[in-house]
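Please review this pair:
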Amino acid sequence: MKSRTATVAGATVVGAGLAGCEAAYQLAKRGIDVMLYESKPHYTSDAHSSDMFAELVCSNSLRADGLGNAVGLLKQEMRDIGSLIMQAADATKVAAGGALAVDRHQFSKYITDAITNNEHITVVRREVTTIPDDDFVIIAAGPLVSTPLANDISNNVGLLSFFDAAAPIVTAESVDMDTAFFASRYDKGSDYINCAMDETQYHKFYEALINAETAKMHGFEDSKVFEGCMPVETMAKRGYQTLCYGPLKPKGLNYPGTDKMPYAVVQLRREDSEGRLFNLVGFQTHLKFGEQKRVFSMIPGLEHAEFVRYGVMHKNTYIHSPSILTEHYESKARKGLFFAGQITGVEGYIESASSGMLAGIFAGHDILETTPPTFSADTACGALAKYVSGYVGADFQPMNVNFGIMNAINMRAPKRERKQAISKRALEEIAQITNGGIEK
């Protein structure tokens, strides 16, 4: 590696996904020049369809937005620190009950415009096939990293892999609203289209689902499947009522105007701000496209649904971060080399962006030769970084942020109150960092 000089160095970021864009933005707002490499449109994976940055290839939901949930707390921490991803999400959100969902096209456009119009960021549309040897590098190539770069990372630090899945999308006008109805659980709005089933309908659907033909994927049986994106047909095979306690749970969704609860309910969440497109919540799948059309059209209200995108399965890769990275997302073996995003073993859009945010912040402090802040495990972003870098078990695998990886709080109170206290404590720490002028 080149020796560092007294002048302010620039930084190289590989990948313009959520983590890469967030990292580049954090560096740029500290006055650091960034070369941001993005392989699209020259190289794209099967899961990508747009040339814009920060493309959401699976769900358009960023999950819960309240402080009673760890991912909701993580979002607020990122807002307080000054996250580009959260600015974009809040500016392009669509109705989704207690969740934060976005218009995926407008979300990506917001971020793409912010990055390309930033005077400190130079975008290079070129595939990077080896880890750059620059002084300061952030690898945020994503879990769908191209084979040449994946091979180079594997040769240098090692790679693991698992399979992930995306849900199908239908047009709103093709849903039979004489059968389906708008509602959110427990009468908290009317943001979702609900397709209710009685027990007979569910039985027919279940039998068709578990016997449907899946697409053949090399190595699928031998690879890990992240629980949060378990294919619906795989989940169904765990037991007859598994779906009824998972994505098809009817609790809180009675038939309109009655107190009668269906046997199962498929929910559809809007994809765009106009409400023209909806995705089938929890219906990640690797069924063949024809089988998806046949089986999912058995759902009441979707008999004549127009599928504008079928569910797809794709292979994600990640490194064994506990043996490779510090809690700054920096390589233990090579100073100045950082990793960010799902390739580090964080799971989820917001978690990926959080890792990019911290990698950008810490790299920025290294470049400017200033003292970085300390994000303890009292905070969601700090706890996630410590999980990735400090997991001591033998089965390290991707994980969403959760209160279980954060420092416990010493108080005897109901769970809800303890969670609120943990969130309050976390935001107080973030406020001390930002109010001290260290960040934001």
Q: What stands out?
A: The chain is about 30% helix and 15% strand. Residues 11-163+315-435 form a domain with the FAD/NAD(P)-binding domain fold (CATH 3.50.50.60). The two ends are 30 Å apart (CA to CA). The longest helix spans residues 415-435.
